[in-house]
From TrEMBL:
Identification of the protein by name: Outer membrane protein assembly factor BamB
Region (Disordered): 309-356
Cross-referenced Gene3D superfamilies: YVTN repeat-like/Quinoprotein amine dehydrogenase
UniProt-listed InterPro entries: Quino_amine_DH_bsu, WD40/YVTN_repeat-like_dom_sf
Biased composition (Gly residues): 309-330
Amino acid sequence: MPEMSGRSSTKLEPEQAWTVLTESPLKGLAFAYEAGRILAWDEGSQLYLLNAQGETLCMSRAPQQIVAGAVSAEGSLIALVGEGGDGSLVLLNADFEIEVERPAPFEATFLAIDPHGRFVAVGSRGGAVSFLNRYGGPAGRLETIQPVAHLAFVPDRPFLVGAAAFGMLAGVELNDARGPGRLDPEIAWQDRLLSNVGRLAVSGDGSMVLASCFTHGIQRFDLRGRNEGSYHLGGTVSHAVPDFPGRTIAAATLEGEIAIMNSAGNVRWRDRLARPPIALEIDPLGRYVIYGHSTGEIVRLDLFGAGPGSGKGRTGSAAGDGGRRAGGGTTAPRTATGSVRRPDWTTRAVSSEEQAETAVMAITEDPPCVAMFTSPHRLELFSATGEKLGRGPEVTGVGRILRTAPGWLAAATDRSIALMDLRRSTQRRVDVSLVELTHLVIRPDSFGLATVQERDRVGRLTPSGRWIWKQELRSPVEDLAIGPEGFAALTTNEGELLIFDPAGESSVGARFDPADPPLLIEAPDASQSGVVWISLCRRSQTLSGHELRGRVVWTRNLAWEGWSLSRSGPFAFAAAADGRVQAFDRTGTVAAEGAASGTANEAFTIDERNVPLRIIRKGVHLICMTLDGRVRWRAVGEETLGPFTAGTAGVAALFGQSLAWFATGKEPAQR
């Protein structure tokens, strides 16, 4: 078979008919080609069912992270597999109503449904493919030497084609020898492949079997397993799918190219997208293609210009394409949930990538502003409206520390501290000699500053730099907090909770395992409660509330090892390294909890109604969600997403060298 030509034909004039943006980053997509329905699911476990005009027909949230999904060609049956060892297999109807729910095969990896919605095939890493009928009953089993990674039912006959991730392609006959509702799968042929397979697709009669083999191009087989040649796009092909008759083929590469060609391999049209598609489907008559990006855009591309029912004029190109539409023209995409938003403002904040990577950021309250501390010892302040408020005083030394209190901001290195009174717009260097500052907590209006030097010398000083008391400890400090009435507390590497009264007299308030020194914060609403301190022993998975003198008032056991302990508003947030989190009030009651997000790089805050929120970074996405996974908004960065921070007033993040601000309580602006 000849290699494809790089010349584009003028016969096709593709136009983007519409773009829909999902709530969270898109994870997968399936196409009911007879019904003209698009099933999609995102990383927030949100399910979407769209029609061919891009209108949302149904939305629902799955109880588990979705590993794989499929829909029958006529749209009556939807199948989903949940993540984890206890993942479930769920069969839904076209209205997202659950018909069947049962345990999924162990380590299930993919799903396939026959075009008429009679049987579901579930593959696993163990190598077996389980067949079920549409009522969830067992219907057969297929075992292969290599685990099947891709499976495609042939629409017009009881036959399917499967492929391993590497090294095998097989044809399977589906016999009804064991009675109605049962299948007797039998391998009809096998062929060796010398490459990985990223996608497997078949035409309506099975005469064209396409295996997307990355650098080996698109390998074409017939229904008897004979290799009929290959198509080469000049890139790494991840998706290739034919229309029903096999006359038109849509293909996409990891380099972001999308191409339309005929069955002879002649390229009729090609274009480069802003980012590679993670899903690609084609209309059975070859009139349009549907593709999806990981950033959440689902796009319909009409191959012959605006077709009937395309929705042209109401929606347009993907946000990731910068509003560019194949064939010319621009319109605005719509969102399925209204969750994608632009920053309220952006401003150039750093002058190099190194500064962006090493920046330390904080958000202050009363008044709200954003502080950015970058090398070399450069502190800049921005108001919540994006106005540059000026620079802080010069500080010398190593490291960058930012600490906030209502109306105040402190920037420090290991040798000096600069203190800013934001209400009065004054700033000064704290006139005190420091050696290797390791911990700093500020409350200038009542307590002053609490410091730890060289990890074992704790002290309290006034904002003007006068020491009120200092004390040298016999063990290094783990964590430090300021409480009401001039009291301070710290935890040591010997497992002690030390309480310091206003004059600096210390006492042991509680003892813990020295091998598991706890984290420590001031309890939410400490001045209004008998609980003043909260500690977290990570290995023993114990969260404790302490009264002013350190006595344990309550203890809560976590189901996982804690990674961090922080507070915002009326809540204390205990988080694990994989992102699992619980929000506690001052009584130790769990107010909200969240599943693993896959990252420890996240921030916690509250909204204007005191609902706990988490902010996470995933690739090019900055996502704000409730702890139960409901996305409030997300932003897609056109440049590298750098450090970010969150406060009650909003979220600040670096996109490339620009500072972006997202105010709390504002509705997302559609992209």
